[in-house]
Design goal:
By secondary structure, the protein is an alpha/beta fold. The protein has three domains: about 180 residues, P-loop containing nucleotide triphosphate hydrolases (Rossmann fold, 3-Layer(aba) Sandwich); about 80 residues; about 90 residues. Helices cover about 45% and strands about 15% of the residues. The chain is built from 18 helices and ten strands. Strands 2-3-6-9-1-10 form a six-stranded parallel β-sheet, sandwiched between helices. Helix 15 packs across helix 16 and helix 15 runs parallel beside helix 18. About 0% of the residues have low confidence.
């Protein structure tokens, strides 16, 4: 499943099991493909559907939530690596000659309100006592001696053993009691849509040009051949980091390899050496035919960010020149547009004339 399919599945499962026994979900997939992001976005969307206020949990908000628990839908992201057993069961204290387990603040919250408990790195912890406590949460819906609220969905996530030497396999009876879902990496188009929605103009779209240029090579997700490494690798997460850092002018040259890995970094830096000025192309559209393939990818992306609705006549000769070669270049330009700009171009109320409408139709086909 891709991220959107995972979110749709979680929504259907969550609502189908209301009022009954809730099954826990184990989400498996490679590193950096957006597993935790997909679950967090689903939680936000589910909160909106239920008419509740979404809360990304922190202990500072516990008293506010507990004062009116029906108001909130709480998302708690709990990475298991680094946890102690008491972080999942509560702390024992001697009281009146008896040992009592005092629950953690987040456990009290998740017992009183609807929400999602996300157990990250589920198969990566090396401590069996922590794993036992985590298994109990997924199977019995208990945190120590406190039961989760009936409308709390438990979702665990983990890398698979081929990507991490820390990841282990589960006993078959345990696996049989979980709903196991595999999440696939996003496509380049899906990644670009997510980046537009998340960062707007705050990311460098030359990264998109590079990933589209080499889409068939699968550069978006190329985990290392070895499960252990001291180098970064290209994943949707690392490309996102690079695109944001480039937009802020925070990385350049060899440093780029520190974000996406040295081998991929060299290829990307070489790609960036291609220089294209969309303003000059607009003045001399015939120059489009003289560009090499790398330059056309960069030009298409830069065109999507440079073009403005109010100045569409200025760009139309170039757009027509590009479309005569292939409408795929125009689609790439549209992908690079932030949502607000794209809405302007495709909104009927914003279309100034037939020439502008003609170009819009070409993009929509």
């Amino acid at each position: 499943m891709r991220a959107n399919e995972v979110k749709r599945f979680l929504s259907e499962l969550y609502n189908a099991q209301k009022g009954g026994l809730r099954s826990s979900v184990l989400l498996l997939g490679g590193p950096g493909i957006g597993k935790s992001t997909a679950v967090g976005e689903w939680a936000q969307e589910e909160a909106a559907r239920m008419g509740k206020e979404f809360v990304d949990y922190s202990d500072d908000l516990a008293d506010v939530i507990l004062a009116n628990p029906d108001r909130y839908f709480v998302f708690h992201n709990l990475p298991l690596v680094g946890c102690e057993p008491s972080d999942l069961t509560g702390h024992p204290r001697l009281t009146d000659g008896r040992v009592r387990y005092y629950p953690l603040e987040w456990a009290r919250v998740m017992s009183k309100t609807a929400g999602a408990l996300f157990l990250d790195d589920f198969l990566d912890t090396q401590r069996m006592d922590v794993m036992s406590a985590a298994y109990r949460i997924t199977l019995e819906r208990r945190i120590g001696y406190i039961y989760l609220h009936p409308d709390v969905q438990v979702v665990a996530a983990s890398n698979t053993p081929e990507f991490s030497t820390l990841s282990s396999r589960m006993p078959a009876p345990l696996a049989n009691r979980l709903i196991i879902v595999r999440q696939d990496p996003p496509t380049v188009s899906e990644w670009a849509q997510w980046m537009n929605a998340r960062y707007g103009d705050g990311w460098d779209r030359r990264v998109l040009a590079f990933l589209e240029r080499f889409r068939d090579s699968g550069y978006l997700f190329q985990p290392g051949k070895e499960a252990e490494t001291l180098e970064e690798m290209p994943t949707p997460r690392s490309w996102s980091t690079l695109a944001v850092l480039l937009a802020k002018g925070a990385v350049e040259g060899e440093v780029i390899g520190s974000v996406i890995g040295p081998e991929m970094g060299e290829k990307f830096v070489a790609f960036l050496s291609v220089s294209v000025d969309p303003e000059e192309l607009a003045k001399k559209p015939e120059k489009w035919k003289e560009l090499n393939m790398d330059a056309k990818y960069i030009a298409s992306i830069m065109l999507g960010t440079a073009i403005e609705v109010k100045q569409i006549d200025k760009w139309l000769p170039l757009l027509n020149e590009i479309s005569r070669e292939s409408r795929e270049w125009l689609i790439l330009s549209a992908m690079a547009m932030p949502h607000e700009k794209r809405a302007q171009f495709f909104s009927p109320s914003s279309r100034p004339g037939p020439r502008r409408r003609d170009w819009s139709k070409r993009l929509k086909r």
